[in-house]
Design brief:
Helices cover about 55% and strands about 25% of the residues. The protein contains 4 helices and 5 strands. It has helices at about 5-55, 60-70, 100-110, 145-159; strands spanning about 75-85, 90, 115-120, 120-130, 135-140.
Length: about 160
């Protein structure tokens, strides 16, 4: 094999490996950013729910459920669940998708906030305290649009 052919093949291999590496890094950073942004939105939903129920301006559960179902920033398959300090369910948005056990409730109380994923559903659990009550709020949803963007990015990078 001529040296010119060898150098051409070596250059092609090095450039191909570098391009593949950059594509993988771009994809991983984009997925991490998507996940972080979605968890921030879930955290905001949980915080808003706790404040609407137990803030200075308390609203009824029926009105909150109506607002929760019809507000403009509703997430796909969103579910909000709120437990009091006695582990009693005091609010559920009604979808019954998310099941929470006592260990998870205790873990949220210890860590103040936890995040996890079950299939496509991403979940955040947040612990709130005020002078009158201690709440554990779970917000969960599916990031349908974020997943679609990541799939499109993977397709573009693959090409």
């Amino acid at each position: 094999m001529k040296i010119r052919t060898r150098l051409t093949l070596l250059f092609t291999a090095v450039v191909s490996v570098l391009l593949l590496l950059f594509c993988i890094i771009i994809y991983m950073i984009s997925e991490q950013q998507r996940r972080l942004e979605f968890y921030q939105r879930l955290d905001a939903e949980a915080t808003t729910s706790a404040k609407m129920f137990f803030g200075s301006e308390v609203i009824s559960r029926e009105l909150y459920k109506l607002l929760d179902e019809n507000h403009i920033t509703v997430l796909n398959d969103e579910e909000i669940i709120i437990y009091n300090y006695q582990d009693s369910l005091i609010y559920e948005s009604g979808t019954d998708v998310l099941k929470v056990d006592r260990n998870t409730l205790n873990r949220v109380r210890l860590e103040k906030e936890i995040r996890w994923r079950e299939g496509e559903r991403e979940i955040v659990g947040v612990y709130f305290t005020d002078p009158d009550d201690r709440l554990v709020v779970f917000a969960s949803a599916i990031d349908k649009y974020g997943f679609q963007k990541i799939k499109n990015l993977a397709w573009v990078l693959g090409i």
